[in-house]
Specification:
Layout (H helix, E strand, L loop, with lengths): L1 E3 L6 H14 L8 E4 L5 H7 L5 E5 L16 H7 L3 E4 L2 H6 L4 H13 L3 E6 L3 H5 L3 H12 L5 H4 L3 E4 L13 H19 L1 H6 L2 E4 L7 H5 L6 E4 L6 H8 L2
Parallel strand pairs: 1-2, 1-8, 2-3, 3-4, 4-5, 5-6, 6-7, 7-8
Helix pairs in contact: 1-2, 1-12, 5-7, 7-9
The structure holds 1,3-dihydroxyacetonephosphate (13P).
């Protein structure tokens, strides 16, 4: 169960969140609990989760370890600050910052090389769903962003299915819609990496997950977790999602 904080919260707000949130998920052993704050708040978040079972992730990374790349952050830097996870290929990165399937693959490889567990995002836009192209979009994203990994590398990856039209809109995919996409993604994994790996791969759903819809989403056999934006910003709300 992962929270993507996007461009929200100061360091003080980050610390205040964890003071309230940590006790609420202390016993949530059914799930890995991950929060991905902004880069500048990673140190505050890592300090705040010491001694808890909450893990911290970045929201992006660049694929070089260091160099003249103004404004970028590398995998080894995330690792050194105490992050264990990193989101790769979020639709907002694809939409506003030129992310492509090819750069998703480069970032995923860099994350793995740095010892980070990538949460790789895929998902169709509204017009792609409405024109009946959801599966071909997912296949293209999988083939370009993930199929180039070795089986050992892929074993470290979690996939997040985030239909773009459901992000921040309050429009959740129906559990059946999400389940269909998740099943299809698992079939892609099975075809490339085998059924055993497919059964083990964690596929998270993201897009307007809230305390009142998480249960029906998580009831779908192919939905293994959630990547939560807005509802992860508040401790009671995100803890009720984690503890659905
Ligand atoms: P919302 O939960 O705010 O729709 O955001 C989903 C998301 O983009 C998580 O990465």
């Amino acid at each position: 169960m992962a929270g993507n904080w996007k461009m929200y919260k100061t360091a003080a707000e980050t610390t205040a969140f964890f003071v309230k949130f940590a006790p609420l998920v202390e016993k949530s052993e059914h799930a890995d609990v991950v929060i991905c704050p902004t880069f500048v708040n990673l140190p505050a978040a890592v300090a705040a989760v010491q001694g808890t079972r909450i893990e911290i992730g970045g929201q992006n990374l660049y694929w070089k370890n260091e160099g003249a790349f103004t404004g970028e952050i590398s995998g080894p830097m995330l690792k050194a600050v105490g992050a264990q996870w990193v989101i790769v290929g979020h639709s907002e990165r694809r939409q506003y910052f030129g992310e492509t399937d090819a750069t998703v693959l480069q970032r995923t490889l860099a994350a793995l090389a740095a010892g980070l567990k990538p949460i790789v995002c895929v998902g169709e836009r509204l017009e792609e769903r409405e024109s009946g192209n959801t599966e071909s979009v997912l296949k293209t994203q999988f083939d370009g962003g993930l199929a180039g990994l070795s089986p050992e590398q892929f074993a470290q990856v979690a996939i997040a299915y985030e239909p773009v039209w459901a992000i921040g809109t309050g429009k959740t995919a129906t559990p059946e819609m999400a389940a269909g996409a998740h099943r299809f993604i698992r079939e892609l994994v099975a075809a490339k990496f085998g059924t055993e790996q497919a059964a083990k791969t964690r596929i998270l759903y993201g897009g307007s997950v809230k305390p009142d819809n998480v249960r029906s989403l998580m009831a779908q056999p192919d939905i293994d977790g959630a990547l939560v934006g807005g509802a992860s910003l508040e401790a009671v709300s995100f803890s009720s999602i984690v503890n659905f």
